Amino acid sequence: MWNITEVALQLPTSTASDRLLQPLWDYLLFQHFTLVSSPFFPVLLAFSSYVIFRVPFTILDVLGEISSLFKYKIQKERRPTIMPMLRTLGTDDLYNHLVFVLPAVLITNVVMPTPPIPAVAPTVWELISDGLGVLLIFDAQYFFWHLVHHKNPHLYRWVYAIHHDYISPFSWSTQHLSAVELTTVGFWSNIDPILLKCHPLTLTVFSIWMSVEEHIGYDLPYSPSHLVPFGLLGGAMAHDIHHQKPSSNFAPFFSHWDRFFGTAVTVKWTKKIDKWCEKVLA
Ligand SMILES: [Zn+2]
Ligand SMILES: [Zn+2]
């Protein structure tokens, strides 16, 4: 067990501009050390992040046409109701985390103990570079896992199909996954930051935000996919297209793997396919 006095003695001498997050990290260490040092901290952080990140998009979905942002809704004719939101909260979030994720964390901690808690906060640069590194590795892992589960009918049926229950994704459908997929994704989310020696603050917050953002069902103008140039990020539009036309856009965050393997479909291509289908069926 850590001694708080030791923590104080180990505090860095770096300038305040280097460690903007130090006050936050100090607060967590000194006020909530038991929580931060717990092997369950990543699970609690992930679970609470998923719930908090969904709140603004839940409000948007409930408001519907009343909201001025409804014009950005991708599939306006398919609006989620409260029932599927409550169902995903009960079965996908609470049940799956209690029954599958927590035991998986316990086993992982026996096999690979978590590294010691650092006394210093990451610099902003470390937070961004480590977060980007984790995103890129997870993106590659999930792209190939996702592609294989779509191509193999048995894997699709028994492991993956549940995620495609919803043709029109909404923020709560992010975690509408089978237990196998949830455990696999959870394992990568835990192991990738450890392999990259990331600070605990970096953890999975970046990838959780991106996962929720790609499922919101709104192509918002200031979303990361519009702010990052050259279409490097897929964003909500790309993943919405995947839920409508599941042979495209397999990568969760970036677009480079889909471009390389020829599975990238943008909204322009989708409109062309729709027009072509209309002509053929007419
Ligand atoms: Zn999805
Ligand atoms: Zn899929």
TrEMBL record:
Subcellular location: Membrane
GO cellular component terms attached to this protein's record: membrane
GO MF term set: iron ion binding; oxidoreductase activity
Domain of life the protein comes from: Eukaryota
Gene Ontology biological process: lipid biosynthetic process
Main location per the UniProt record: membrane
Keyword annotations of the record: Membrane, Transmembrane, Transmembrane helix
Transmembrane spans: 29-53, 94-112, 132-148
Signal peptide: none
Protein name, per record: Cholesterol 25-hydroxylase like 1, tandem duplicate 1
UniProt domain Fatty acid hydroxylase: residue ranges: 134-263
